[in-house]
Amino acid sequence: MMREDILARLPEAVRKTGGTSGEEVWSGVIRITGDYSIYDGGKVVVEPGTIIFIAARSDDQHKGIPCPKDQFNPKDPVKDEAYVRSRVWINLDHGIFIAKGTPDKPIIITSDSLNPQSDDWELLTVGESSRLEMDHVVMEYFRVFGGSGEMKITHSIFRNMMECIAIIGKGEHLLDIKPIITHNYIYNCGHHCITVRSGSPIIKHNVIRARPDMEFPGYEYGAIAYDFFTKTMFEHNFVEGGPPVRYDEYDIWGNYREFLYSRGLCSHSYFGASIRYNTFYNCTDSGLEVVAYPMVIGKKK
Predict the structure, then answer these.
(1) Which residues pair with 98 in a beta bridge?
(2) Which of 58, 91, 201, 231 is 20 to 30 A from 150 (CA-CA)?
(3) Is residue 250 within 8 Å of residue 292, measured between CB atoms?
(4) CA angle (129, 147, 171) in 5-degree steps
(5) Angle at Cα 160 formed by Cα 155 and Cα 164, nearest 5°?
């Protein structure tokens, strides 16, 4: 289906904004015009074939949580108050979101702009004690997706995002979260397509391509990375780092650096990982970068 055909269905859309703590079933065409929370045990089930439009660079709730400049990604737009108040945020806060399409009737979650950009809407977050399931979903033109709740993503397409899919545990449960990401196509992303900051995700049978479209804006470092408090199972994936993109900037220590590389998988994990049966392709710097971090555990004196 061409984008013009999808946008032609906008007049059919049912408007959603604010959020719900009840149970809802979405079908047909939905348009989310402001920050939307599924909270306090609320549940949203999306039926096959549903199109969910997200208001592009507009938020009728005028809310959001500002963040300081990202020191590691200084060319990204800063999430100041004006920025977050003009981007929709979908938040699962002790809520459930189930979106299961079919091969013939996928669910589409997209910007409502005719000329969409990589951060038309800000993020979808899955908080602790929340659950998200996606199957045969196409999600695009958003800044970042992720969280620390229960996640299962299968047979779906994630593309054209400014940052990445991010997996981040909290507190004493850094390794407890076990999101499942299998049989997906993830591409055209900034930073990395997937970033694992903590947890024990299962990432299998995916096609992950950092930047096949070189006209798409962004500042990618490679296809996938996991760091520090993680223990990832990464098996049977096809990984393409893509051509390198020049990226000149001062790092967080004030030193000028020129980034010019394209990596497949960067593994910087304290707890090791299972990396088996993967194909690394078109990675100009390295297909697989592994850095071992020793841990020293001592008694308090």
Answers:
(1) 45, 133
(2) 58
(3) no
(4) 70
(5) 75
Tokens standing for residue 126: 């899955």
How far, in whole angstroms, is CA 30 from its chain's centroid? 21
Tell me, yes or no, whether 220 lies in a domain: yes
Tokens linked to 263: 């990596």
Question: Tokens standing for 119?
Answer: 């951060």
Q: Report how many domains make up the chain.
A: 1
Q: Which domain does 265 fall in, by range? A: 3-290
Q: Between 21 and 70, whose confidence is greater? A: 21
Question: Which one-letter DSSP state was computed for residue 209?
Answer: E
Q: How far is CA 194 from the centre of its chain?
A: 7
In a domain, 103, yes or no: yes
Mean pLDDT of 155-170: 89
Residue range 168-183, pLDDT digits in tens: 876 666 778 899 999 9
Q: What is the pLDDT of residues 231-249, one digit of tens each?
A: 889 999 999 887 666 656 6
User: What is the Cα–Cα distance from 62 to 59, expressed in whole angstroms?
Assistant: 5
Token pair belonging to 58: 């507009």
CA atoms of 143 and 145, how far apart (whole Å): 7
Q: Are 294 and 233 in contact (CB under 8 A)?
A: no
Pull the structure tokens for residue 185.
Answer: 């196509």
Q: What mean pLDDT comes out for the span 115-135?
A: 95
